């Protein structure tokens, strides 16, 4: 079946639209569902195996949308609710279908928090602390946890096949130097671009302009902006954002369901949605 990386959710914590918000971006999403954004998460497919990167509170809807029938492992970037809140969705899948626990790779500092938050999942998920710099080989693809800047212990993941390199950093404020060195000249950088203009939380997130600059600084062949809030500061629509990006041929907005073929090298057919 090959190997691919798919963005399950491209939104920040509030999602788009938010139930409490009537900004221009939320109105756009209510009028046209293709502009809706569920909370951030991704799916790595390697052969016949499926691995989740983060489990947002919208996980069930994301898995139903993708017609996904099985999960073979879960990697968490960090322990914030919008990235782990869907873990409980695995309970009935494991008990009624899979019949064996799922490996859960998570930050070492989050293991105790996992047990405290989900004491009833001890026979559903097996927590295994990931290690920075360690590559987890899954079929034709390697997954390496790299340090991110997000206030608490947080990783992004470097995804590598024989012909393609992709980095996924949904929550980060820039990148530590040790991480920058490992993602230089990457085929695709998918990164935090929470704020459309001014950055309210510069120690943990990036604005769109900062994310674009990060892509340039590491020589990324393509930069994909994810974890988009669109509400904060001056609200903005997708049509307006695509207009801003029209002169940047290698910068794209992520959208739910966006997929990257990991066996095609750097020639991915990016399109604006």
TrEMBL record:
Q: Which SMART domains is this protein grouped with?
A: Lactamase_B
In terms of domain of life, where is this protein from? Bacteria
Q: Where's the Metallo-beta-lactamase domain?
A: 38-227
Spell out the protein name for this chain: Beta-lactamase-like
Instruction: Look up and give the organism this protein is from.
Output: Desulfuromonas acetoxidans (strain DSM 684 / 11070)
Lineage runs: Bacteria, Pseudomonadati, Thermodesulfobacteriota, Desulfuromonadia, Desulfuromonadales
């Amino acid at each position: 079946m090959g190997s691919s990386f798919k963005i399950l959710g491209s939104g920040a914590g509030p999602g788009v639209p938010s139930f409490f918000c009537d900004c221009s971006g939320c109105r756009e999403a209510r009028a046209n569902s293709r502009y809706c954004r569920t909370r951030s998460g991704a799916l790595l497919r390697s052969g016949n195996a499926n691995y989740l990167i983060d489990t947002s509170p919208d996980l069930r809807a994301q898995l139903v949308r993708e017609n996904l029938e099985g999960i073979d492992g879960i990697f968490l970037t960090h322990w914030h609710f919008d990235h782990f809140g869907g873990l409980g969705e695995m309970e009935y899948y494991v008990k009624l279908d899979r019949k064996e626990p799922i490996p859960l790779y998570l930050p070492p500092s989050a293991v105790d928090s996992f047990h405290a938050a989900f004491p009833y999942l001890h026979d559903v998920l097996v927590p295994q602390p990931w290690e920075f710099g360690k590559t987890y080989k899954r079929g034709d693809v390697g997954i390496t946890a790299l340090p991110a800047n997000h206030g608490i212990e947080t990783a992004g993941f470097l995804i590598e096949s024989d012909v393609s390199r992709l980095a996924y950093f949904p929550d980060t404020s820039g990148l530590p130097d040790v991480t920058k060195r490992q993602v230089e000249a990457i085929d695709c950088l998918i990164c935090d671009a929470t704020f459309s203009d001014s950055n309210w939380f510069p120690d943990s997130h990036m604005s769109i302009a900062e994310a674009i600059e990060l892509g340039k600084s590491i020589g990324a062949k393509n930069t994909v902006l994810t974890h988009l809030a669109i509400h904060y500061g001056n609200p903005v629509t997708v049509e307006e954002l695509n207009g801003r990006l029209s002169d940047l041929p290698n910068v794209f907005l992520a959208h739910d369901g966006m997929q990257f073929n990991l066996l095609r090298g750097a020639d991915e057919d990016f399109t604006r949605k």
